[in-house]
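Are you able to produce any protein sequence you like plus the matching backbone structure tokens because I've never seen that pairing?
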Amino acid sequence: MEITRIFDCNAETCVYNKNKRCHTPGINIGDDVPCCDTFMAGSRKAGFDDISGGVGSCKVDSCSFNRSLECSASGIHMSVVGNEVDCQTYRKK
């Protein structure tokens, strides 16, 4: 199984976000809601330009793509919703 890629993310205030793309090897998707636990706000950018972000783990039991705490979607879209950055690919079982 390959790591699930993050196609895009509009959380431009995140240190790992450059040009609406995630540049950390793996994010974690939160517990009860499909939010990005790896999100960190800041003006100083981090991550690696040559890395396209992926999903390191998914702790959302109610998601149909969750297989043994790993994401089985072909790729995900992340978007700011209120005060969180949520997985827009989330589908309830």
